[in-house]
Amino acid sequence: MKNIWRIFSRDWKNISKNWVAMILIGGLIVLPSLYAWFNIKASWDPYSQTDQLPVGIVNEDTGATVRDTDIDVGQEVVDNLKDNDSMDWHFDDREEAMDKLEYGDYYAVIVIPENFSEKLGTVISESPEKSEVEYYVNEKVNAIAPKITEKGASVIVEEVKSNFISEVNGTIAELFNDLGVELEKDLPDIERFEEYVFKLEENLPEIHDMISSSYEDSKSAVDVINDVQALLPEATKVTKDGISTIDETTGFIDDAEARLNELAPQVQEDLEAAQQTAEDVNAFLTDVRSIDLDLDTANAIKDRIGEQTDASVERLNEVEQLLKQVKAQQEEQQQNAEADSGDNSEDGEGQPPAPQVSTETIDQALATIETIRGDLETVQADSGKIEQQLGEKQEEIDAVLADLQEKSQNTADRIDAFVKEYNDSIEPKVLSEIDKAKNTLANARSILADAQSTIPEIEKILNSTEGNIAEGQDILEYMLNEYPYVNDKVNEMADRIRDIQGETDINEIIELLKNDPEAEQSFFEEPVVLSKNALFPIANYGTGMTPFYTVLSLWVGALLLVSLLSTDPHHGEEYRKYQQYFGKLATFVSIGFLQTLVVTLGNIYILNVDIAAELPFILFGFATSFVFMTIVFTLVSVLGDVGKAAAIVCLVLQIAGSGGTYPVALLPEFFQNIHPFLPFSYAIDLMREAVGGIVPARVKTDFIFLSIFGAAFLLIGTFLKGPLHKRTRSLMKKSRESGLFH
Fold this sequence. Notes:
Layout: H1 2-17, H2 19-42, E1 54-59, E2 64-66, E3 69-71, H3 73-82, E4 88-91, H4 94-103, E5 108-112, H5 116-121, E6 134-137, H6 145-185, H7 187-288, H8 295-346, H9 360-388, H10 394-503, H11 506-513, H12 517-525, H13 541-564, H14 577-606, H15 614-639, H16 641-657, H17 669-674, H18 679-692, H19 696-736
Parallel strand pairs: 1-4, 1-5
Antiparallel strand pairs: 2-3, 5-6
Helix pairs in contact: 1-2, 1-14, 2-13, 2-14, 6-7, 6-11, 6-12, 7-8, 7-10, 8-9, 9-10, 13-14, 13-15, 13-16, 13-18, 14-15, 14-19, 15-16, 15-18, 15-19, 18-19
């Protein structure tokens, strides 16, 4: 251990005593940092400078007309790009833009063809066509620029697509909103329709029975109409005959009324005469009651009473005959009317019955006359008793006369009452009944006349009805034939409605359809918003590349040291090989620590790299530097110039396979396979933990693997430096003899 320290301390004493050595060592300490700093600064934030990347835009779109609306999507894209500073857009014609692209003035050219808007407008046609944007890129100008410009082209396409989708979906959303409002308005009708369907499903069997019954009834209706049509001529004849009969009956009543008016004065005169006769008999009996009667006087009284009684009876007989004539005329008219009514009934056409003048009043009057006549005949018969009672006592004669007077008075009173009844009741009532009969016949004639004028219309209606029934039979027959299909469809519809009701609430559909069209349009313009949540935020691209370039600079620093400094001590024959190895390794590691300190502190304070954990960043740098210096020093110390070549090969493999620039998953399979065996892989991950944020488990894993690499090369140096030293020295001596190597 003492010898190892002696070799280490002597190296630093020699450096401190030789200013040239100090300058060289200082340069070796700072030079790797410059490698890291320049690369980090160069890649600090390249994507923020894309506004200086020239890209040509050629708009050849001629626009289009879609449903009477002019559209020019190409011009809209140009207008939007003029306000877009993501790249340095240049608007030229095709020829000029392609020349500049070929020469290298433009990194890319985007051409909007003349049919761009026209093809976009085909979205409403049966065969929509996709629009195309032509993209030209000069890939030899730069390896990264084509990827950036391609991103710019895709941004244009995405912008057009986003605007197009937002417009289309905005229109659809507006239609859906209108549909939702209409559905909400029509919801009662929809629910009522569902009820109708279920009701129809329930009543379909009954409807089928009704249709079948109607079809059978229509067959019978045709026969009925034919029968009615056959009877129409007869109905016309009967109606005509009915009018004639009514006219004749009216004539009969007019004759009866005239006859009654003609007989009324005579009846009045006869009744008044009968009344006068009765009064005369009564006065005569009053006069003879106080007279002493003898046979001649009694005979004279008897004769006088008989004459007057006969005159009254004769008058009453005349009145009776007149009333019987009126009654006979009434009965004859009634029989004629009943006969006509019977004939009309047989013809199938109902006619109103002939009006009748009431005969009860006439019968009552005839009964009264019969009573009066009986009383007169009684008076006449009783007058004969005068003669029979003549020889008897005067008192009995007076009694007979008194009795005759009383009966005569009663008869006179009855005649007087009958005259009043005839004048007040019988005659007015008969005339009233006749007047009613005439009115009834007039109404009946008017009805028959209307019926007669209606018969042609009825005939026309029947003819039309017959045709309609025939047509209706065809419809009913068609309905019967189609019933199985309709029944199946209605049942299917009802089942479907029930399924929908079970699966979906129409109110939910309405709420889904109802929306804010502007909000929907905005949604489809950007349906997904990327909400970036950086778990370990990195400020910029340069910060993200800091772990890679820092680790790379440490390996480069180790290569510079082994290239300029000797790995073996001068006058080292007195030291053992492992002492020489560890003594010189300590010198190289200490210089490596100084390189690490410069590069890490320069990253923090000169470049202002945003380091999450600054102290661990420096410490992880020391650990990485120790491992790298151990590996490189061991390779050169043990293998000589071959070791230098091996260190350079390891550098090349690690730059490509460590995942420092591209994710390991994107690397070729070979580099993915060697990735776990490269020290860079764990060193870069360890530095990333300090830059972005420490995950202790990852730090532990990276430290373990780096320690394995360091320990492995320490063992190689310890045990192989001695056995391989002579061979490597002979190879180095042989190469120097060529005059090409030092």
